[in-house]
Each structure stands twice: as structure tokens, then as C-alpha cells.
């Protein structure tokens, strides 16, 4: 997999213009070298090669015409693209193309225009290289097939006289034929497999770009979430409906005949029972939320990728003026193991809560180690890239700081991990845990806290203009974005309520709403104690979710 940046040679007698062009191309992620004379540039091209030559038409000894002729007459540089800088006017551009240049730019020009022309030339060059490779593979396959058919013809000719030959000699001719056919078959299978592997690598590397935050995607998600009513409004509306229904039933009973009174009485009893349960849930939520919400943190885990043989970090080849990674002709990001471009990172968001002294946080293992049981990352590892934790940061409600965190322990039994956060001077309550078997039963009400949907849900708490401004100021830097959200006191968990559907030896099934990003959130019972940790969404089954009983976290807290 060739991920090295393309090499570009600039030959311009004007030091200021040459330096400006070189700086712009380096910023775009290319390997650039500049020369003041044509002779120096040609020597460098013959020694090291280049994909693009940017040449000033005013150069002499040799002139631009002679230089292009030298390049086109050499096999090693014939495919190199030449971009000629000419005077102002269409005639000058036409003369440049007649000389054999691939492109021409008139003065005065901007460095952005030069970079755009270079990028366009390289896109065409990559397509031509791919076609050339395919033709080479086809030619090699044709040669092997031709060899196989020649062997077949020779074998048939010899077999026609095989009446007088020994049986073992006949077998030898058959073996030659079989070997030739096998060689052809192996080659075609190899070529097909190589093409599939290349396509698979491109697909996997494109998925790595998912860590590069797409601002418009975040805005769209935040806008959608902003239209959803707050979770606190639903219980209030339901309570009002039940109170009104109870009042209506009482009014009907006052004028009802004896035959209908019994039925109305039963409806009233059922309504009052539902109203009591709803009021009890509200009372529990009012008790739990103020006391414990401050101890539930947002975890931001940044995962980098290293080349297994060399240990070098995978980087973007460069960024365009909008701050997005440069892309090749297939739309995949240009990646490299060298250079100074930003590292390729996958940003993972999850939830954690204070469960022990000295900043001991409980979360899911798939949050602390995002590659654990992750098929996509496992496939990337097979391509020679090793995932590594770059940073873990914890953000607590009510504090603008990002706290450094490290993995403390990983459970070998289930999807749990403990993380130690450097709390500095921050004081947060250790949540009460209930590890007994009687801590939770089917049908019991529960409360869930977590950072479901990650950044999008946090941005949804502010208005459209503020969200746009935060993203504009932060660019694609996730840490800068989180810092600004924390400064505005927008980082706090989403709180949902529901009921337990089933209690299994190693799982709790409940219907309190959550989604990606809520993993690792605490599940509270009606007494305000943590009885489980959110772990997974049960897709395709009425929004039910899975939690891990909190007793499985005890070994991680010792």
C-alpha cells in the first residue's frame, strides 16, 4: 500500500515566488524541493524522480523548450507532468502546451491556483497509473496463458507420436501440461485476490476517516435532537393526563347507575395506581438527579494507529484550506507514515461514573479499549496497523477542565473496565453501589444517566447559532470543541427513566432510552443506588437495552 506523498520539483529563478509555492504545496501534504537553475533541477529529477515539475518559462541554459524535450526523451521521466509558469495571455498558454507542457498558468497567479492545478494533474496521473497497472497485469496473464497454450500444443504434438513411447514418458508429458495449466490458474487467482485486497484496504482506510469530525453531520444531528422534547416533559404530561382521567371518572361515578358504578370504580383504582407509580418515579428522580449527576462524566477516547513493523504513527498526507484531509482520485484520504500532517485518530465517546476513591471510574471495556470485539478495527489490524490509546479525557458537569485519565484495570469476565482519573482538586461523590441479588427485580422502575449520542446531544442543548459558532471556532479539533462546551457548562448527562424487563444472572434488560455514547452509564434503582452499567442496545426489539449487574465491577475496585 503506497501512502507516501507525491514528490514535486519547483524550478524558478525568483526566490520569493519559489518559496511561496513550495510552502503552499508542503502545507497541502506534498514532498517539495525547489531549485533556482534548470540544471540543478534536472540533476535532482534524474537522481530521485518526481511526479510533477513546476517550471518557469523564463529560465535559460537550458530553456523551457529544451528542458521539456530532455524530459520527454528520457524513459524514467517521460510520464512526469510538467506545469509551466508563463506570462499573461492566451498565446503564452497555447505556446506552453505546444512545447509539450501538460498545463500552463499565467501570471499573475495565486499559490492556491497552483496547488489546485497540481492536485488536478495528480488525479489524472493516479488514474493513468491504475490503468497502466491493470494493463500490466493483463499482459502478464496473457503471457502466462500463451505459455500454457504453447505447452499444450507441444504436448499434443508429442502425444500424437506417443504410441511408440514408454508409458512413463506419456505421464511426463501429461505432467507438463497440468503444470502449465496450474501456473495459469494460480496467476489469475492471485491477480483477482490482489485486486480484492486493494479494494478492501481502501475501504478500511476510508472508515478510519470517520474519526475526523464532520461539522455538518454534527449540526444535522444536533438540529434533529433539538426538536425532541426534554425527557422531563413526558412524565409531567402523563401525570396531567392521569389526573384529568381520575377527575372525569369521579364525575361519572356521581351520576352513574349501580350497574356501571363497579366498572367505573375499577377504572378509577387502576388510574390512581398508575398515578402513584408515576409520582413515586418522579420523587426518586428528584432525589437522585441533584445528588449524583455531578459524578457521571463524559469520556473522550482518542485512538491512533501505528505501523506494526516500524512503529510509526499513521498520519494524513495534508489538509486542504477547509481543514479537511486531502483525498485521492477515489475520494479516500491520503495517508502516510512520514511527514508532519495530523495523526489519523478515531474519536470514541462513552460514559463513566465515580465508583471508588482516588478518581476510580467504572465504564465499559469497549469504551476504554474501543478495538475490543470490534470487527472493523480487527480488519484494519490485519492490514498491518495497530490501534493504540492516544489520550483519554474525562469531563465532569459543572467544571470547565479536561481531566487526564488512564486505564486502571480490565475485566476478563465481562464488558467492564476501571479508569483512574487525575481529579486534581475536584471533589465528586462516590456513587452508592448495591451488589446484592435483591437490588433489582423485574418490573421495578430504573433511572439511567449517560451521554447518549455524544457531541450531537451536547450541541443540541444550545441554539443553532451558538452551535455553529462553537464548531467554526473549534474546526476539526475535537478537544477544542469539548473545551468550549465545558466552558459553557453544556456537558451534563442525559437522564431517562424506564422499567426492568428481565433480570438474568449476567444481564439486566430494561427499557430506559439510550444509544451510542451512553455505554458505561450508571443504572439506578428506586433507592438511588447503582445496580448496573449500560452496555448494549438490543436492536430490533422495542428499544430494550442491556446492562451488566454492578457486582461484576467489584474486582475492578479493589
- The averaged pLDDT comes out at 78
Tell me the span between the first and last alpha carbons.
46 Å
Percent of sequence in beta strands: 15-25%
Read across the widest sheet, the strand sequence of neighbours is 6-9-10-13-12-11
Low-confidence stretches: 193-203, 205-213, 229-234
Helicity, as a percent range: 40-55%
Coarse morphology: elongated
CATH architecture of the largest domain: Beta Barrel
What CATH calls the topology of the largest domain is: Thrombin, subunit H
Classification by helices and strands: alpha+beta
CATH class of the largest domain: Mainly Beta
A few lines on this structure:
This protein is of the alpha+beta class and 558 residues long. It has helices at residues 15-27, 38-48, 64-72, 90-99, 111-160, 167-208, 215-226, 233-255, 258-292, 365-368, 375-382, 455-459, 464-474, 478-487, 554-557, and strands spanning 7-11, 31-35, 52-56, 81-86, 103-106, 296-307, 315-316, 335-336, 345-356, 360-363, 385-395, 403-410, 417-421, 445-450, 494-503, 508-510, 522-524, 530-537, 545-549.
Would you kindly provide a written description of the structure presented here, covering whatever features stand out?
This protein is an alpha+beta fold and 558 residues long. The protein has 3 domains: 7-109, 3-Layer(aba) Sandwich (Rossmann fold), CATH 3.40.50.2300; 128-210; 291-557, Beta Barrel (Thrombin, subunit H). Helix content is 44%, strand content 21%. The chain has helices spanning 15-27, 38-48, 64-72, 90-99, 111-160, 167-208, 215-226, 233-255, 258-292, 365-368, 375-382, 455-459, 464-474, 478-487, 554-557; strands spanning 7-11, 31-35, 52-56, 81-86, 103-106, 296-307, 315-316, 335-336, 345-356, 360-363, 385-395, 403-410, 417-421, 445-450, 494-503, 508-510, 522-524, 530-537, 545-549. The strands form 4 sheets. Strands 6-9-10-13-12-11 form a 6-stranded antiparallel β-barrel. Strands 14-15-16-19-18-17 form a 6-stranded antiparallel beta barrel. It has a 5-stranded parallel sheet with strand order 2-1-3-4-5, with helices on both faces. A hairpin with a 3-residue loop joins strand 9 (345-356) and strand 10. Helix 1 packs across helix 5, helix 5 runs antiparallel to helix 6 (167-208) and helix 7 packs antiparallel against helix 13. The longest helix has 50 residues, at 111-160. The protein is elongated and about 110 Å long. Mean pLDDT is 78; it is low at 193-203, 205-213 and 229-234.
Amino acid at each position: 500500500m503506497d501512502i507516501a506523498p507525491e514528490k514535486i520539483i519547483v524550478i524558478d529563478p525568483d526566490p520569493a515566488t519559489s518559496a511561496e509555492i513550495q510552502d503552499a504545496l508542503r502545507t497541502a501534504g506534498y514532498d517539495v524541493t525547489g531549485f533556482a537553475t534548470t540544471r540543478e533541477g534536472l540533476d535532482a529529477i534524474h537522481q530521485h524522480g518526481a511526479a510533477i515539475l513546476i517550471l518557469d518559462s523564463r529560465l535559460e541554459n537550458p530553456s523551457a523548450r529544451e528542458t521539456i524535450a530532455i524530459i520527454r526523451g528520457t524513459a524514467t521521466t517521460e510520464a512526469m507532468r510538467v506545469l509551466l509558469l508563463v506570462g499573461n495571455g492566451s498565446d503564452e498558454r497555447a505556446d506552453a502546451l505546444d512545447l509539450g507542457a501538460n498545463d500552463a498558468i499565467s501570471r499573475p497567479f495565486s499559490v492556491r491556483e497552483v496547488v489546485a492545478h497540481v492536485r488536478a494533474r495528480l488525479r489524472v496521473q493516479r488514474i493513468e497509473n491504475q490503468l497502466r497497472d491493470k494493463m500490466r497485469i493483463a499482459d502478464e496473464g496473457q503471457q502466462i496463458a500463451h505459455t500454457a497454450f504453447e505447452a499444450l500444443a507441444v504436448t499434443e504434438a508429442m502425444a500424437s507420436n506417443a504410441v511408440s513411447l514408454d508409458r512413463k514418458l506419456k505421464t511426463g508429458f501429461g505432467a507438463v501440461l497440468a503444470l502449465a495449466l496450474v501456473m495459469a490458474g494460480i496467476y489469475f487467482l492471485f491477480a483477482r485476490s490482489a485486486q480484492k485486497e486493494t479494494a478492501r484496504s481502501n475501504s478500511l482506510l476510508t472508515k478510519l476517516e470517520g474519526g475526523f469530525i464532520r461539522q455538518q453531520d454534527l449540526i444535522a444531528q444536533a438540529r434533529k435532537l433539538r426538536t425532541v422534547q426534554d425527557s422531563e416533559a413526558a412524565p409531567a404530561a402523563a401525570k396531567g393526563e392521569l389526573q384529568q382521567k381520575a377527575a372525569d371518572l369521579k364525575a361519572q361515578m356521581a351520576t352513574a347507575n349501580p350497574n356501571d358504578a363497579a366498572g367505573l370504580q375499577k377504572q378509577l383504582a387502576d388510574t390512581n395506581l398508575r398515578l402513584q407509580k408515576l409520582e413515586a418515579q418522579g420523587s426518586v428522580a428528584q432525589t437522585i438527579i441533584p445528588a449524583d449527576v455531578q459524578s457521571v462524566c463524559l469520556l473522550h477516547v482518542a485512538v491512533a494507529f501505528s505501523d506494526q513493523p516500524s512503529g510509526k504513527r499513521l498520519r494524513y498526507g495534508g489538509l486542504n484550506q477547509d481543514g479537511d484531509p486531502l483525498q485521492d482520485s477515489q475520494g479516500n484520504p491520503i495517508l502516510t507514515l512520514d511527514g508532519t500532517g495530523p495523526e489519523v485518530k478515531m474519536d470514541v465517546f462513552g460514559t463513566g461514573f465515580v465508583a471508588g476513591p482516588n478518581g476510580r471510574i467504572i465504564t465499559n471495556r469497549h469504551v476504554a479499549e474501543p478495538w475490543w470485539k470490534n470487527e472493523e478495527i480487527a480488519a484494519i489490524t490485519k492490514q498491518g496497523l495497530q490501534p493504540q490509546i492516544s489520550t483519554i479525557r474525562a469531563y465532569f458537569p459543572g467544571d470547565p477542565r479536561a481531566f487526564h485519565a488512564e486505564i486502571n484495570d480490565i475485566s476478563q469476565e465481562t464488558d467492564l473496565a476501571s479508569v483512574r482519573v487525575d481529579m486534581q482538586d475536584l471533589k465528586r461523590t462516590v456513587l452508592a453501589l448495591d451488589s446484592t441479588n435483591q437490588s433489582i427485580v423485574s418490573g421495578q422502575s430504573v433511572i439511567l444517566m449517560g451521554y447518549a449520542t455524544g457531541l450531537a446531544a451536547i450541541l443540541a442543548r444550545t441554539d443553532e447559532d451558538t452551535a455553529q459558532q462553537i464548531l467554526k471556532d473549534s474546526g476539526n479539533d475535537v478537544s477544542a470543541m469539548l473545551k468550549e462546551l465545558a466552558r459553557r457548562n453544556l456537558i451534563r448527562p442525559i437522564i431517562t427513566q424506564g422499567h426492568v424487563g428481565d433480570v438474568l444472572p449476567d444481564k439486566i434488560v430494561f427499557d430506559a432510552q439510550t444509544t451510542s455514547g451512553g455505554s458505561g452509564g450508571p443504572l439506578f434503582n428506586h433507592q438511588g443506588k447503582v445496580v448496573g452499567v449500560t452496555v448494549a442496545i438490543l436492536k430490533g426489539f422495542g428499544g430494550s437495552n442491556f446492562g451488566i449487574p454492578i457486582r461484576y465491577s467489584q474486582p475492578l475496585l479493589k
